[in-house]
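Hey, can you fold this one?
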Amino acid sequence: MKIKGTLLLLMFGVMAVLSGCEPLMVLNPKGPQAETQADVILFSIGIMSFIVIAVFAILIYMLVKYRTSKQSDDYEPPHIEGNPIVEGIIVGIPVLIVIVLSIVSVRSNYLVEATPEGYEDQDPLVVYAQSSNWKWHFSYPEEGIETVNYLYIPTDRALEFKLYSDGPITSFWIPQLGGQKYAMADMVTTLHLAADAPGEYMGRNANFSGEGFAENTFNVNAVTPEEFDEWVEEVQDTATPLTEEKYNELLEPGHLGQLTFSSTHLEFSPPPEGEHGGHGHGGSEELEEENMDMEHHHSE
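Sure. Predicted structure:
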């Protein structure tokens, strides 16, 4: 009775907690990449739920149908050979499940690693996302803007994040826009995202990186393209440039609020280059072109 009471209390406790929870962010997608991942998660949950229900139903049936009964002391159960049909089903169904999940996983991985569907014909907004202990630095090379611990992005436009770290390995993650990807010190990795709807989203470092990990978060403001252009003009007119001295100060371990600058650190502290310089994502040639575009933009 004590065990049964404990289980009932645990069940009611879990139900009470879940009843007050908001929908999981990964199941509330606001972009094509996140929607693909949410569909895969729900599909996998559906298959696993079916398997669990079927297994428990068969278990109950077997326990009831073949439960033990009182037999005489000299009772010997009959010899039963294996059934090829049953054995084929037992082996075949798990193989089919693995094949289906493998196909779904490979296809979804290909989709989320590529430019979001529907955005292939437009130039993406390129943002260099650099992590340090314990903050995020976002550089917009084409706009000549840098922010700390917050992102401004336009909706209905492809986003290309070039990720790297100034310290330990971190993981860039905006759950409602897509999956996480690692940022490392000796190379640049690329993450493709897009936002379908305006709103405020949460971003964070999803990889443990020391004592300040819990607060290693950033805000994402998705706005219309017109509002994004207005924000760019306002920052260029009102914000102060980022100096090398100020940048080195920002890299010191600790937490900061949100900061905005009218220039980027890419001019005096470029991302990793060479053999591990991004595999074509953020190498020296590409960065040089972006710096030339940025200088031309400022001259105008």
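Residues 32-65 form the longest helix (34 residues). Let me know if you want another pass with a different chain boundary.
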